[in-house]
Amino acid sequence: MGEVNKKVIAICGAGGCGKSTLVEDILFINKKITRKGSTEKGNLAMDFDSEEIERKVSIQLSIANIQNNNTIIYLIDTPGYHNFIGDALCGIRASDSAILVVDILEGVKAQTERFYYELEKENKPFIVFVNAIDKENSNFSNALKSINELFKAIAFQIPIKDKEKVIGYIDTLSLKAYDFNQKEIELPQHLKEEANNYHSLIIEEVSSLNDELLENYLSGEELNQNLFNNTLKEAIASQKLIPVLVGSALAGYNTQTLIDFANTYLPSAKNEDNTSKGFVFKTYNDPQSGKLSLIRILSGKFTPDSIYYNLNKDQEERIGSIQTLIGKNPINLTSAEAGDIIAVAKLKYTQTGDTLSNDKKDTPVEFVKMPLPFISYAVYGSSKNDDEKISTYMSKILESDLTLSFKKNTETNEFILTGMGTNHLEVVVSRLKKFGLDIKLKLPKVAYKETIKDKTTHKARFKKQTGGHGQFGDVTIEIEPLPRGAGFEFVDMIVGGAIPRQFIPSVEKGVKSAMEKGPLAGYPMTDIKVKLIDGMYHPVDSSDFSFQMAGSIAFKEGVLKCKPTLLEPILEMEVFVPEENVGDIIGDINARRGKMLKMETYGKRHNFKQVIVLVPEAEILEYAPTLRSLTAGRGFFRTKFYGYEEVPAQKAQKIIESAKSQEN
Asked: Please, which residues have CB within 8 angstroms of residue 292's CB and are 6 or more apart in sequence?
């Protein structure tokens, strides 16, 4: 079916590099908005969420579109900060190409790297836009150097400065100079050599990709301009060549040139097959306006008031009206085709990542794999009655943010919210407050347990005489430790009817009940074997209750003779860090009582290591900020439960004292 004249471009880059301001300027120049807003004033078209306005950062992706010549260009403005990476990855997945924005003073940051690796993995061509070239003390060469340390890129434009003021730029492909009104000016003498070097580099790189061009280039003949342009397009589309352009989104320098260049050289959307098919890459869930799904159409046509099939949920979905958005402002559509992004309200079953099609036998689109959330807090409402409400509203928030996890820890009886960072979780709390809930975050409780290191035999009797039937139960039990992770074992060794059979489960029940609160700090007990070896009963006064109580007393008294000890949960942690930070990371892990298991090279990332360690959970409750600080934001980690180990005596004493002080 060939290509359609639509392009979907993700605007991505590290937080604070000016992405939303860039989109704002593009929308203003193309008359999609009537005035330019700013981050400071909180009136940017693309940062419309109340949390974004308050925090002055992009928290979620947003979309807009412009017309450039005969092409409709959809722009997906993505968040730049690590806390909100999920939406950025969804935006990249829904795009065909990207503009990677880099601030001229800050250069490549940790998140720039993260987005580059994602674009490389997804095979999405991109242009680099070096923004804010009018900043004081800015140096384009330094910015370009930091880019080239991450990937090979060539300057297609370089800024012209006159007494520290930026007055224009040189187009290194045409070797012409322009001011920011796109009026040609004289090429400055002092930049001629630099411009020529970049020009030669572009010609060499492009010519090396085509035999005819290479032959012409080597023999000094004039190059076929059409063939050169087509080869340049192919080189950009295949990531063999990454162009660098310059400008200032805030001042409005060169933003339209950037869009014209993107329209010329970045690929158009393809119509992939004969079915009508699209996938949801973002869900907005607002307390007032409800649920809104953004769908990237891959093929065919979507029309209002039609039924499509959710291939992931095996359910039919009715689509009512269809719209597209400029920020939060809807524009009604009568139909939409491959390359369009539509907004659809109130889908019943469909969530982010689901594929809709008019053919039940179609294959769902593979969606982006989200990074694992790694910072956890316990969520507390103002009263016990809030638990159900918290779960209900969290399910709405989870629909619109795939990097969140929310579950009940049955060991500690806490709701645990896990996300990408402290700011991420603060935004969630703020959203819950908008649903009318008073929420607090606390560090999660550690699920300590207690066990024993010695064995004993103990006899206990429960006897009460109070008019009429009394209570009588007598048991003798052996208590001994089990290997770590074995749990609990109860062995009935009664012979000769010392205790009637019907009362034996009651003894076990009493022992289990006593194990719920250990003698040291009240934590559950584990890895214990109890043998019921003897007992006595009374034909009238014995009952289930009396043997339950006897079992409980025997265990509570006996366990004190078995050297009770405290256990703590140990996690296996994988830490992914740049090679130069490995020493600091291992030093920090050792200080947290961690044990190194192994270290290996991580994936395709140059100079990245995967360090695998065992570490007590209590030592890494607040590990995320430390790791980000030690690695300048480049490191990340994930954990899984490994097992329980004994707490060192000095540490155990503090935990026991703390638990007892909370009881009093």
From this structure: 283, 284, 285, 286, 343, 344, 345
